[in-house]
Amino acid sequence: MPTAHSRTGPDPVSGALAADRLGAPSVVYFVLSAAAPLTVVAGVVTTAYAVTGITGLPVAFLAVGLVLALFAVGYVAMARHMANAGAFYTYISRGLGRPAGIAAAWVALIAYNALQVGLYGAFGAAAIPLVERWAGVTPPWWTLSLVAWALVALFGVMRVDLNGRLLAVLLTAEVAVILLFDAADLFAPGPAGLSAQTLSPAALFVPGVGALLVIATLGFVGFESAVVFSEESRDPRRTVPISTYAAVAIIAGLYALSAWAMTVAIGPGNIVETARRDGAETIFVIATGQLGSVVVDIARVLFVTSLFAAMISFHNTTARYFFALGRERVLPAAFGRTRPRTGAPKAGSIAQSVLGLVVIVLYAVLGLDPLVQLFFYGGAFGGFGVLLLVFATSIAVIAFFSREPSGESVTRRLIAPVPAAVALAVMVSLAVSNFSTLLGVEKGHPLAWVLPTVYAAAAVVGLVWALVLRAGQPGVYSRVGMGAKAVTVPEAVR
Amino acid sequence: MLADDFFLIVWDTTGTGKPRLYVPGIALGLAGALLGELVLEERVTVRGVRLQVADRQPLREYVADRVLADIGNSPQHTEVRTWLAYFAQRALPDVTGRLIRAGLLERERPKVLKRKQSRYFSTEFGQAVWPSTRLRLSLVRWQPLTTHDMALAALVDACGMTDSVVEDPANRQDARRYLTTVLAAMPQPLRDLSSHVSAAVGDAVLTYRT
Asked: Would you tell me how many other CB atoms lie within 10 Å of the CB of residue A264?
């Protein structure tokens, strides 16, 4: 690809291609609007306090941010050599071999689907208070979730994306509201005063810390997507790394601050109880006393729009995973086709929507809780899957650069990636052993081992599938991890 | 010419005047078709990811000659994907302009919303539907295709439009099977070119900004 700067005088081709390229601020905006900050602060953080019963989340965000920043050094360097840079399985496929890549692709499909489907639960729970206020009726949560589901399903196939400018406005408003709430919390500290207890590293040395690390990882999901824009960015070698580090730093700072501010307002000793009582209402209840009901109503609306934006974003991410795998023929070719009128990855979009509908109906019929058992479990399960992918990718980065140094510095090849991989290994092992805390169930509860086992099973199925492909369809096997570029691999190599 | 035929397939010029395929996809397909015209006339060669001018002699057709001149004037750019991205930016006005000058197309500009897409209507029904009819008949009846039509079929398929050309779902499976053999028999440069169009269209799906 051409770079924006030519060596010899003005270059009309490079100039024309660079005209609508993205700078780092735009890329950061794209990344953060998909991360949907208010969804995390109002939904994930409060529910996490309630479910896990431990309070070290603020410092966990900082710790995970550090690890991911370290991980990102090698990750963005390797991204430059990837055909389908947005997807972790591409890296794993190149670094650790195609069987591992296909196993990772299955894990990724499950994880991103879980994240997306979980959002339907939060949407129902978050929209009920608004409907109550405005219409005076209290519908069951799943009716609202189904409305959101129908819109997402339609938008997915029609490829109606929320306008970039609208998303930017919503994101700015979300961040403004979060900062306003944080300021209000910090100016009116609760019984313990401005206690830094939940920000101190000591808060990480408690039983169940693995749960906090998974939840913090969940908050960062989306940071990996800046690399997708490398071909569209003004100067990929600078824009993409800067955007990735900026996104990680902003997420870590904003979430740590907000999670901490909540504990300051209520007192670190009371946050768990309050969150258990008020659920997703927690931050709104706190803020009503401080800022008045108008601001809080605006915030509630933003919470709902934030959830909706996140749903569309994760829906599209998932549909594109299906699409890339369809193009590689790892999944049936139908997944690799688009709807002509819109260019939407139709089959993947429909598959995602069908899964969402099944889950919503199942939860409605079984009478399960939308916030804890759908949103939080979905998020925790998906977040754990993403943690596994990041960990596997961190190993893949080291393996890839040890075989192909590709002119990268030793810092990018080893000095940053090795400690990142070690830290991620610790995080994964803590997460596995603390899975019952993550779900808020007693030790030995079947869910605490069934959910991690799902990923193990998916990985095994993926490995077997890879071996089947290698024996039966070597052409397909050789193209694993190529994404849309799979089609350009010449026949002879196949 | 190849790009004209491609346009008449992906644009509903005999009915609504609106595109049948999303416009960024059309732009990439047309860019591929403009390059394809030069490959068919042996002015440009494509090999793997690279593209090169083989013969600078003009075709005496304004649009094609401008494409040829642009490539010839920037020999430092050799990647097919670079040129696809570059020509995609202006392929739609280039190709519709050519059809309008030939008296085959009329343009209807949006009256109220200036930013909306123009509509295009063909002046001659038979000429407008001939490319897609020709492709459909060849694919469904398993008839041999000219090199020009192979390239056309390959580009249409790269943009995900095969199902729209073969309208009857009952014929699609057979047509697709025949298309696979046709594509395999196509000259290497055209095969490489259309595979890059396909990859560019797919990458556009994967990197779409949400």
From this structure: 25
